[in-house]
Amino acid sequence: MMKQEELIIERYGLALARIKEIPSESILQEPYRSYFVQMARFVEMMDRTYEKVESGELFQMSMEELQKHNRLLYADILPDHYGESYGNPDYAVNRLGESIGRLLSFLYTELRSMIPSAYESNRSAMTIRMELLLEVYQNFVCASQEGKEPDVEGIRQILYWYVSDYYEAEFEEKCRDLLDTDRDFARRIIMESDLSDLRYLYYFGEYVTENERKTAAHLNEMNAEKIKLIADTYTEGYRIGFEVCNKDISIKETVQIRYFLGFERVIRQAVLNFDRIGLQTAFYRAGTNIFQGRNVNKNGYCGANPNKQYDYDHKEDIALFLDGALAERRCEAVRNVFERHKEQAALFGGPAVIESFGEEPFVPVNKTSACKLAEKQQKLAVSNAGQIAAIQNEYIKGEERSFTIIAFPVPGIGERYGEIFDDVVRINTLDYQLYRDIQQTMIDVLDKGSTVLVKGMGENKTDLKIRLHKLADPESQTNFENCVADVNIPVGEVFTSPCLKGTEGLLHVTRVFLNELEYRDIRLYFEDGFVKDYSCANFEEEVENRKYIRENVLHHHERLPMGEFAIGTNTTAYRIARKYGIEDKLPILIAEKTGPHFALGDTCYSHEEDVKSYNPDGKEIVAKENEVSALRDTDVSKAYFQCHTDITIPYDELGELSVLTETGEKNIIIQNGQFVLPGCEELNRALQE
């Protein structure tokens, strides 16, 4: 180990020394020289940051100094500067040419992933990216000395083999962050810092804005009882998730925490709570490189997103390299890493997630300069994702793991942030027994039916038929799960996996936000449970609208099934959203509880179909699969889609939701946006307020 560390120190020193020479060299002509000089300057800044961490200087800096340094790290991709950033594929292509511009824009994004590495003192991760820069630079130098243009395919090959050669080592880092509680970088900051001194926010290496500072300050003003209430709701949801799904939490030793900076006071209490129930905590940072993936919707702990358009522009950079050999290499690497960590994987219980919401909705710009998967690559990517998910499920078994998710607003939601935060705490801590009993009344009626009818009103043109499974023994079985406050907080939905055959019609929503992206006038047409056609009104060109849905809702699948049908019952959340005018800022976690919703992709029971689970009334939930997931026993590659996107119809766009029996009897549950089923009247109180 010592020899390996010594080798990294030597490689780091040699690479840094060579990179420092680049700005003084005049071998390259413009526009390439300016690019490499800027890359060299960035690497030098990363080295200075690394030294600040190693020497302890970072922790002695004033708040003003930390803010200045933090902004300097992210300045180039902030919206004000993005127009002239090599991270912007439009700018890179315009300056450097189409082919080389895309490649060098990707290279820059990979160099930017050195920021968290510098803060974590991960010299190895920094070294391989410095060496990558030098290898590409040398290719340009050789071409210049020979009086030639740079070899585009040669540059692509350098980058390709970087991705291929380091995929296993980088996945090893990701896996250890996921499973290894000894990787305590974030936990030490959370548990050992003086949280009243907000300088600690700048020790993570994430982008920090007023949102994170004000969130932390707001939580610091709360008394210990309120912090404990929030943390208890979060951790109890995780524990109860195992209980209601009939899973044994005692065989698990680790839980992974994902959250947004600013919530450290709650997270500190949550760590103590998990410790008391025998679970150690691991912290996984949101992805910043090609190996972890870059996306607008962050997966892991993180700070503010400096520029969502930047992430959107680079979410398909893998298109530069993806082929059959690389797909095979990725599967091989994932299996090798999990095999080395199979004992830790077996002890992993799943993630506990705190989401945040309240920032201005993001409407992306589709750029022709950005990398896009070709049709053949799309199919390969879908297949590869399925293979990797199947491998992971061998080691982290779906039938044994669980999760929980809860969400809170950030100050960017508006001037009434404090009031909104308190109301969201109330939403997240509603009386689950009240909802349990009302929802059971609804389930009793739904279980007598064979088909659910959903119709919009006003501008909403929804007209859907959802086919339900036939219960073999209605006295002991149910189609719908009675969802209270466990894995999905807050309370407020009943859901099922519908039959695909017989599920048909139009799902239409005038405006909805899915994974932080806006969709206007989205229309999805179903036939035998699958989306057969789709459109929206985001762009002038219909081809752009279809591409937008194909990429971000269908996730490059040619079609997706309706994996879930649910009725949201949290009218309090709906009323509060309308009260503050924040409907467009609600996370799907809360939005899905504010009306009926429909999920595209896998069912809610993906990889857990054979685990028996029961409602509070003792009935077994049997509608856990559909005609697609049933293929898992014969061809698992065709059974899952690795996506699940909920689309909600708000109450005020809902004309009717009713259930039909086989004999044609109709029972109306919701009519003109109000609950009319006897026993559910209490839900209208919030709507009427």
Describe the structure.
By secondary structure, the chain is α+β, with helices and mostly antiparallel strands. Among the domains are: 2-150, no CATH class; 430-688, no CATH class. Helix content is 44%, strand content 16%. It is built from 23 helices and 19 strands. Strands 12-11-10-6-5-17-18-19 form an 8-stranded antiparallel sheet, with helices on one face. A 5-stranded antiparallel sheet has the order 8-9-13-14-16, with helices on one face. A hairpin with a 2-residue loop joins strand 11 (517-527) and strand 12. Helix 2 runs antiparallel to helix 8, helix 6 (98-112) runs parallel beside helix 9 (152-179) and helix 15 packs parallel to helix 17. The longest helix has 28 residues, at 152-179.
Number of helices: 23
- Strand content bin: 15-25%
Q: Can you list the strand order of the major beta sheet? A: 12-11-10-6-5-17-18-19
State the share of residues found in helices, binned by percent: 40-55%
Mean pLDDT: 93
Largest sheet: 8 strands, antiparallel
Content-based structural category: alpha+beta
- In total, the number of strands is 19
What's the short story on this structure?
The protein has 23 helices and 19 strands.
How are the elements arranged and paired?
Layout: H1 2-21, H2 32-55, H3 63-74, H4 79-82, H5 89-96, H6 98-112, H7 114-119, H8 123-145, H9 152-179, H10 185-192, H11 210-221, H12 224-244, E1 254-258, H13 264-276, E2 280-283, H14 308-313, H15 324-340, H16 342-346, E3 348-357, H17 375-395, E4 404-409, H18 417-428, H19 432-446, E5 451-456, E6 463-467, E7 477-478, E8 481-483, E9 493-496, E10 499-514, E11 517-527, E12 530-535, H20 542-552, E13 562-568, H21 571-580, H22 588-591, E14 596-601, E15 620-621, E16 644-648, E17 654-660, E18 666-671, E19 674-675, H23 684-688
Parallel strand pairs: 1-2, 1-3, 3-4, 7-15
Antiparallel strand pairs: 5-6, 5-17, 6-10, 8-9, 9-13, 10-11, 11-12, 13-14, 14-16, 17-18, 18-19
